[in-house]
Description:
single chain; alpha+beta; Rossmann fold; D-amino Acid Aminotransferase, Chain A, domain 1; Dna Ligase, domain 1; six-stranded antiparallel beta sheet; four-stranded antiparallel beta sheet; 10 helices; 24% strand; globular
Amino acid sequence: MKQKKVAVLMGGVSSEREISLKSGNAILKSLQGSGYKAVGIDVDNAISEKLRTEAIEVAYIALHGRYGEDGAIQGLLEILGIPYTGSGVLASALAMDKYISKFVLESRKLPTPRYTVCFAGSTFSFPYPFIVKPAHEGSTIGISVVNDESEVHKALTEALRYDKKVLIEEYLPGREITVGIVNGEPLPIVEVKPSSGFYDFTAKYTKGMTEYLVPADLPIQLTFRASEIALEAWSAFEMAGCVRIDMIIHDDVPYVIDINTSPGMTETSLVPKAWASLGRTFDQLVERILSEATLKA
Length: 297
C-alpha cells in the first residue's frame, strides 16, 4: 500500500466541512509520517478531474455529511475504479438518512426510539418530549429537544434550515454511549457525559464541555448487548471500514439513535479515544482503516 498514491478526501461542501478538514488533516499527517505517498484533496465539483490529475490510486474518505457520507463520493470512486475506505454506496446512503435507517433497524428488531417524519408545510402529532433532527445531517447539527408546544416552531424552523425532511424522535432519558467498529472489530464502549446535559455541536467539539468514560462503566451483560446490537447493525447495513453506532441506555436497553459511516477523526473524536484505550496509536488506527480500502460494487 505504501507504494500507491493515496488521496485523503476532506472538506467538501456539507455543513460539516470544518470538522472534515480537521479529520482529514490529522489523517494526512499520520499517513505521511508513516511513510505513505499521501496527498490531501479538498473535495468540490471538480473532484473527478483532481483525482485524475493527481493519478490517485487509493482514496481515504475523511468527508462528513452530504456528498461524502451519503454514497455520492463512493459512487464516483466506484465509477473511476479507485478503491476507497469505509462503507459502500448502499450502506452509506441508508445510514445517512435517519428516517430510512429506522426501517433497516426495525427489520432486524434492533431497539430504536419511536419516530415519525415531517416535511416543510406538513403537520404531525407526537407525544412530548421529542427530538427534532434534520434527516441527513450529522454532528448534531440542527438538532433540538422539544418539551412542549411552545418549542415546536423554533425547533422545526432550525431543522428545516438544513433539510427538507425532518425526523421526529421519541426523547429517551438515559446514558449516552457509542460503539466504534473498525473492520468488523467492536471497540471498547465510550460513555458520553456532556456538562450541559445535552450532547449538541458545542458539547461535541469544545474541549472540556464533555466527559468521556472509556471504557464505559456498565454491567457486563449490558456491555455485551450494546456491542452485539452494534455488530448486528453493521451486518444489516452491510457496512465496512470504520463506523460508529450511537445509543441511549434507557431502562437497561441500548437504543440506537444514530449511525455514522464516516466518524470524526479529530482530537475530541470518539473512535480514536476508544482505540487508544486498547493501548494502540492513532497511526495504527489510520493504517488499519486504510488496509481495508476496496471497491465495493
